[in-house]
Design goal:
Length: 446
């Protein structure tokens, strides 16, 4: 099992006042809220006839309430993309209240990660060639000078660890607050401009194992250098790597660091289109299912789609601000040529938001449609039961009349009375059914 990528800082020890260091700790009260410590026999307000609840029943009720609130919290956390603290080793580092800012106070920065938990890929780029190599020894890599032929270096880190982030932060001079935000995920998408570098935070979406997966990506942009951090080892940047390796005349080789950062953001944003296309197909299928004659309950599926669309919207909406901020003319690290391409990414963000809003409205309409169809099917069933009841009302009336215990009922001694009763029941049932059919009430649609 790989070690946890980060840990939660331990709680601080509470200092007791003088004179209480060696005293025994006070016993914790076992009295539940609203319960009195006075014995029932000595309590003046005690009423033996009033209902009481045993202690084990109250404790079970409290446990069920705690479990319910815990499930609700985990649901909200998964919806908002918050870290799951019960995920055995995959927790992310949280910022303790009152802790000093920056990455220097994180103790894990001095402990190297175990082999295989963090992957670092470096691509050295110039117009004539591109070299790719994996970094096994980070200290050795940072101690070697960069080759003179390299015009652009891309350092891609898969996985988050304070040791790796701290080493790269000190080697390349990134701001300590930006390095801290790399570890404290999730962050709202944004761009921070520093003296000689930019720090970009975005969210990457992918469809893996039939579910939506989201992770934070952090990108540092410096003159001739791009450093990217991802939470996992799967991304949507393989087309960017292929363009760097296969096409000598690619603008990725000819451009600067800001153009590579644009290409990474463009691939991240454009990957939302196939995801939205999949959700569009899901909504079409759910709509056909909801309109089927014997449709199952699709409310849970519609709610899951709507929840994921909300997660997408919360991530893409601030991306517009990120792209707009990068396209400003006062961003000296962004070339004018890159600003032109960033406008295209901005339009893609606007288009994605429009599609998401359309799908959200469609999901809301599907919810109303599903409820309406369920109500319609219930009304059809009630109509059928009403027709059956109406058919048997005259028969029940006759059976009640001739079932009375009066002595003088002439028809009871009639020779053909029994046969006449069944003939009347048959004619009455056939007549009512014929009349209901002419009215159109027997065309039942389940």
């Amino acid at each position: 099992m790989p070690p946890p990528r980060s840990t939660i800082p331990p709680s601080e020890k509470v200092t007791l006042p003088p004179g209480q260091e060696t005293s025994d700790p006070p016993e914790r009260s076992t009295i539940l809220p609203g319960r009195s410590s006075i014995p029932p026999e000595e309590d003046p307000d005690y009423d033996p006839s009033s209902p009481s609840f045993p202690d084990d029943a109250v404790e079970r009720s409290l446990e069920r309430m705690t479990s319910t609130f815990g499930e609700l919290g985990r649901l909200v956390g998964s919806t908002l993309g918050l870290p799951n603290l019960e995920d055995g080793g995959n927790t992310t580092q949280t910022h303790a209240p009152g802790a000093p800012p920056g990455i220097e106070h994180i103790t894990e920065q001095w402990t190297p990660p175990e082999p295989g938990t963090i992957r670092i890929r470096v691509m050295d780029v110039c117009k004539e060639k591109v070299e790719t190599h994996w970094v096994d020894d980070l200290d050795d890599f940072l101690s070697r000078p960069q080759p003179e032929w390299v015009k652009l270096r891309w350092v891609d880190v898969d996985g988050l660890h304070a040791y790796v982030v701290s080493k790269l932060q000190r080697a390349y001079g990134f701001h300590t607050l930006a390095a801290e935000d790399v570890l404290h995920v999730p962050q709202r998408p944004r761009v921070d401009a520093y003296t000689d570098h930019l720090f970009i935070v975005a969210r990457m979406f992918d469809w893996r194992r039939d579910q939506l997966v989201t992770e934070q990506i952090s990108v540092f942009v410096k003159q001739g250098l791009v450093v990217s951090f991802q939470e996992h080892d799967e991304d949507v940047w393989n087309p960017i790597r292929d363009r760097l390796l296969q096409y000598e005349a690619s603008k990725l080789r000819l451009g600067d660091a800001s153009y590579l950062a644009y290409a990474l953001l463009d691939a991240t944003v454009d990957h939302c289109f196939p995801i939205l296309e999949r959700y569009g197909e899901m909504l079409d299928h759910l709509e056909d299912t909801a309109l089927a004659p014997e449709a199952p309950d699709v409310l849970q599926e519609v709610h899951a789609v709507k929840r994921n669309l909300t997660i997408l919207r919360k991530a893409v909406w601030p991306m517009r601000e990120v792209i707009a901020e990068l396209g400003r003319e006062d961003q000296l690290l962004v070339s004018p040529d890159t600003r032109t391409y960033l406008r295209d990414v901005y339009q893609h963000c606007v288009q994605i938001i429009d599609i998401i809003e359309t799908f959200r409205e469609l999901a809301s309409s599907l919810t109303d449609l599903s409820l309406s169809m369920a109500s319609k099917r219930m009304n059809e069933v009630m109509k059928l039961l009403t027709i059956i009841s109406t058919v048997f009302i005259p028969i029940t009336f006759l059976a009640g009349v001739y079932g009375m215990n009066f002595v003088l009922l002439p028809e009871l001694h009639w020779k053909y009375g029994y046969i006449f009763f069944w003939v009347f029941c048959g004619l009455e049932t056939a007549g009512l059914l014929f009349w209901f059919r002419r009215k159109g009430w027997l065309r039942i649609k389940a």
